[in-house]
Predict the structure.
Amino acid sequence: FTLIGIALYLLWKKLCFLPSYEELVNPVTPPCLEPSLQDQNLTQSSPAIQPKTGAYVIGSINPELYKDPEDNSETNFPEGNIGRLWFSVEYEQETERLLVFLIKARNLQAPADSCSPFVKIYLLPDERRFLQSKTKCKTSNPHFDENFVFQASSKTLHQRTLKFLVFHTDKQKRHHLLGQVILPLRNETLTSDSKLVIWRDLEAENLEPPSEYGDIQFSLSYNDYLGRLSVVVLRARGLKLQDESFTTSVYVKVALMNHNKFIKCKKTAAVLGSPNPVYNESFSFKTDQKELDTASLSLSVVQKAEDDKSHQLGRVVVGPYMYARGRELEHWNEMTSKPKELVKRWHTLAVAPN
């Protein structure tokens, strides 16, 4: 009976003397859980309530991690840059219209403190006609937002080239050429379904008068690891065409020689008869490094008429001392001294011997 009495006493004491807890007025929320989902809803409806900066609910998305990458095309300019141009191109097959939308330019380097630029647009080989934008006053970063239309046959479209000349107008209303952009349409896919947006850096135009038979510009590069000689035929200027009609075309033939023995020949695509054709085509030749002392490259500019008759307009040979002198020898030596680097130069065309 004594044990039973003790047990009943302990049970009665436990039930009558339960501990009481004071409700917290300001409960502490773990940092990883603030603000709560309910707090976020309140924040959206009540601007006065703002969540703690830098804290996110478990399972929510941090928007800082999903921002679009920055477009560096307007800020990342290489050393010596003289400007950059943005434009778009599309082609309407049914109406045979080439639509050019001039968007903007950035980082223009005007000769004076203030820059008032405008742009002339050509569709080569027609260099007598052009379309011109409005002049934007006192800005080196103009917005043009102008549309231009050229009529161009679908059969000859890929033999045409767009040329943009960017000018600056000074206080005396004189025009100064700031640079040019040349876009051959040969490698572009142009449709009316999608607008091709392009940006290009301006190039300084060669203001030297062309030589008697014209000039050609190309780049040379040699990869000593792969044993590969590369040639990029860029453009020609001042060519003396026998027939300047659109029925003629001009191409460049590149031949690799070794000890005056023909090794291999490659040709560019033909460009409609223009004294200033643009190519931008690259060719590679397998050449061992030991052969560079005996190898040479011959570049011939050839005019082809509608009846398939061909006429060589001029030629230039680059190579080591036994084959070349002057600029041609310097170009070859610079290429061999700078492996894997493109070396670009202009060369004077000479009439090939009969």
About this structure: Residues 20-25, 27-70 have pLDDT under 50 and may be disordered. The first helix runs from residue 2 to 16.
